[in-house]
Amino acid sequence: MNEILDIITYPFAYRALIAGSLISVCASVLGVILVLKHYSLIGHGLSEIGFASLSLSSALDIQPVYIASPAVIAASFVIMYVSRKYKTAGDTAIAIASSAALALGIVVSSVSGKTSGMSSYLFGSVLAVSEGDLVLSVILAVIVIAAFVLLYNRLFIITYSEDYAKTLGINTAMYQLVVSVLTALVVVMGMRITGTLLISGVIILPAVSAKIVAHGFRSLVIISGAISFLAFISGLTVSFVFNIPAGAGVILSNVIILILVKVLAKS
Amino acid sequence: MTERLRLTDAVIRYGDITAVDGVSLTAEAGGMVFITGSNGSGKSTLTKGIAGLLPLSSGSLVRTARMSYVPQYEEADRDFPARAGEIVLTGTQRPGKLFHTRRDREQALSAMEALKIDGLADKEIRTLSGGQLRRVFLARAICGNPELLLLDEPCAGLDAQSHSTLFGILRGLLEGGCAVVMVTHDISDIDGIPEGRIIRMSHGKISHSITHGEHGHE
Predict the structure, then answer these.
(1) Mean of the pLDDT values across residues B78-89?
(2) How large is the ipTM?
(3) How far apart are CA A170 and CA B164, in angstroms?
(4) CA-based, 20 to 30 A from A169: which of A138, A260, B84, B99?
C-alpha cells in the first residue's frame, strides 16, 4: 500500500490518475448511449482512426491533437450517420473504416520510419499524460457531465426511440452530433492512456456491466460511471504494482467486474 | 372544421420500389380516418410518411405540430432499461423545452390512469406484457394532449377490456377536437367508433374510400 502511495506522489502518476479517472467516467456514461443504441463498435472504429491520425501527426511532426481531434470527430459523425441511415450497414462501415485506418497508420509509420512511438499509441502509456492533457480532461469531464445533466431528457428519448423524438419535432440530429463529438473527444483523450486498441473497452464494458444491475436509464448512467471509476483505479494500481501497461490493467479490471456482476446477478 | 392533416398526391419510394403512390387524404378536428389493407399495401409506410419519419418523394404534407404517433409494438426495444412512467413522460417533450414540469408529470399520470396502467409506473418495461407495453405507448401518445394522433395497429395485443378502454379514450379525444388516423389490418377494430372514414389501400394506392357505417356493404 505504501508503495502505491509513494508512486502517486510522482507527477506523471497523479496526472494519469486524475486525467484517466475523469476520461474513464466520461467514456462510460457516453458508452451507455452507444451500447443501448447498438453502436458498441463505434469506439473501436474511432480509436483505429485515431491511431492513423497519431501516426500521421508523428510523421509530419505536428502535435497529435491537431490532426487526431478533427479526424476522429469527422469520422464519428460519418459512422453514426451511416449507422442511422443504413441500419444494417453500420457495423460493416465501421469494420471497413477501422481496418483501413489501421493499415494506413501502419503504412505511414513504416514509410516515415517513426515506428518507435507506435507501441505507445497501440497500448497506451501513463507517461504520455501531460499537464495540458490533465487540464483538457477536466474541461472535457465538465462538458460531458453538464451535457448529461442539462440534456438528460433529450438523451433519454433519442436513446430509447429516436423516431418517436423526431415525431415530436425534436432535432435528433443535433443531439446525435453532441454525442458524436463528445465520444470522439473522449476517444482522442483516452487513447493516450489506454492505447488505441483498448479505449473502446473503456467505453463499452462499464455500460455492459451496469446494464445487468440497473433498473432505469438514470441508474444505468450512474452505475456505469461508478464501475468505470473503480475499474480505472484498480487497473492503474495493478499496472503500477506489476509494471504492465495501464490500458491492459484497466480493461482486465473491467472484465473481472463484468464477470463478478454477471455471477452475482445470477445468484 | 379545422384541418389537422392534409396530404396531397404523396409518393414514398424505397429505392426503385414505390410503396405509396399518389395518396391524398385529409383529417379534420374531431374526425377519424381508418387506413386498412393487406400486408404490404403501404399503410404503415403512409403513416410513417405522415409522421415525418419517411420523406415524401413527391407530393405535399401539411399537419399540426402537436402530433403524437404510436408505432407498431414490434418496433419497441423491450430490453431498454426504463420504467413505464419514464416512457410515458417522454410524450410531454417538446422542442425548446429541456426539463419536465410538474404539469407534465400530472399529465403523464392522468394518461396512465385513463389507460389503467398507473400501477405500472415504476415497473421496468422489460417486465411488462405486450398488451401492457402497448398501453404505455398509448399513454405516452395522449399525455402530450395531441391535435393529431397517428396509431399504427394499436389493437394488436390488446384484450377485449383494453380495446374497449382504448376506444373510450379515442372518443374522448375526438370530442376534444383531436383528429385520429388509425392503421389497422382488421376492419372489426373500428367497431365502437361512431363514425369515421375508411380508406382501403392496395399496392400503395387508395382503392376504396368510404364512411363508417357503409363498410358492412363494401
Answers:
(1) 92
(2) 0.87
(3) 32
(4) B84
C-alpha cell at B136: 404505455
Angstroms from A215 CA to nearest CA on chain B = 6
The pLDDT, as a whole number, for residue B213 is 60
**Is the CB of A157 inside 8 Å of chain B's CB atoms?**
yes
pLDDT tier, B196 (very low <50, low <70, confident <90, very high otherwise): confident
Q: Please name the amino acid found at residue B79.
A: D
Residues 6+ positions from A102 with CB-CB distance below 8 Å: A48, A51, A52
Record: contact B98-A151, CB cut-off 8 A: yes
- Contact B68/A at CB under 8 A: yes
Find residue B150's DSSP bridge partners. B69, B181
Query: Cβ atoms within 10 A of the Cβ of B85, count?
Result: 20
CATH superfamily of B1-66+147-218: P-loop containing nucleotide triphosphate hydrolases (3.40.50.300)
Angle at A56 between CA A176 and CA A196, to 5 degrees: 55
- The CATH number corresponding to A2-266 among 1.20.120.640, 3.90.650.10, 1.25.40.10, 1.10.3470.10 equals 1.10.3470.10
The stretch B36-55 carries a mean pLDDT of 92
A168 at interface of B, judged by CB pairs closer than 8 A: yes
